[in-house]
Amino acid sequence: MYKRQLQNRVYFGGALSGRDTNAVHKTISGLLKLLYPGGGENISDEDLEWAVRIALEVRRRVKEQQKRIGAAEFRNTHFSYIMGEDGVEKFVATPEVYSENNIGADPLEPGQVWSISPGGLDENPGLYRIEISEGPGSGVKILNKPVPPAFKESVSYAEQNLYARSPQLVGDKDPRHHEFTVQLRAFDSSKSGSKLGVATLISLCTALLKKSVRGGLIIVGEINLGGSIEPIYNAVTIVEIAVEKGATALLMPVTCRKQLFDLSDDMATKIDIQFYSDAREVLLRLHRHARRLRHHGRTVRDRHTHPDRQDPRFPLHPRRRGLLAAAGDPVSYTPLRAHETPEHLVCRLLLEKKNSQPNNTKYNNKNTTLTE
After folding, report:
1. What is the spatial distance between Cα 35 and Cα 293, in angstroms, rounded to a whole number?
2. Into how many domains does the chain fold?
3. Looking at the whole model, is its pTM more than 0.85?
4. Taking the chain (372 residues) in consecutive chunks of 10 residues, what is each chunk's mean pLDDT?
5. CB 155 within 8 A of CB 207
6. For residue 40, which phi and psi values (nearest 5 degrees)?
7. Which in 42, 51, 354, 356 has the greatest CB count within 10 A?
8. Domain with 135 in it: what CATH number?
9. Helix, strand or coil for residue 237?
10. Which of 261, 290, 319 is the last residue of a domain?
């Protein structure tokens, strides 16, 4: 009875396996039965979302313990869900794992980005989090009072680049018809927020696109009015701060590559450093990682790209079904089987393709040779 309320109202993310989904459904049904003992015919969205978040949170605790075993199938614990027509994916974290003031492994809300300011002559580098929300209207409004002049300059550069390069960054969305509210949060003694232009631009884009940035990621760099990326001269110090704050990945301008030759081996093994040459490349890297993360579960890999293979337990969101219909031919994502190496995967795919072709060749089972 209560399970029918989830159909076409709640869509779970790709991190949930079939076993996870069944457990979440049972927990949701039990919670809704406490609220609606006489039947769940008219369950409000608020009560349904409350039950969904609790069910995902308690199930994630189970999977976090399974993750400690070290099995690859339990590696992705970023549970998420989608409710409403806007199609925004919301991630659920556990309080004992997530801390608001630390860099965690869970994806951030749309419009939120971690960044490190390289500092200046009279200021040390520092960690910041940029939080941007969008709504109807126009322009960009900074909530910090007083507004740090250096951060105001970075926001202005990011805003002008968003307007000038919106087709490359956000597609058919017009940022001039949206109002952005910006808040800068400082976590160190550094308060100026200088040279945070790239992170601010990515935050504006993700707020407009309703896309989350992966957890544990720090984006550094400044962008000028013409769209060029300014160099950073203390890249090793920034990497050391990122590792100290618990970051797992760092996106830096490609001009920092030579400086990192002086980075110690211990620091280099603790963080994944990637480089970019422009803001669009940063968005592409975030998009590619999100696709890998979303398609990590074996049971839901093909449901995003092959509607005809869709598992009825994992319905597609209507917005995604429309995107698939407009995308043309689907793309196949073939998962690795247990204990299978990439070389074995290639051999298996070649054999499957040869066996699926017309019978113009056949195998001799006696001497295992291929005959025409």
Report:
1. 34
2. 3
3. no
4. 72 83 88 80 83 88 77 72 77 70 77 91 89 92 91 94 92 92 90 92 92 89 92 92 90 92 88 92 75 43 39 46 40 51 72 67 44 40
5. no
6. -110, 60
7. 51
8. 3.30.230.10
9. helix
10. 290
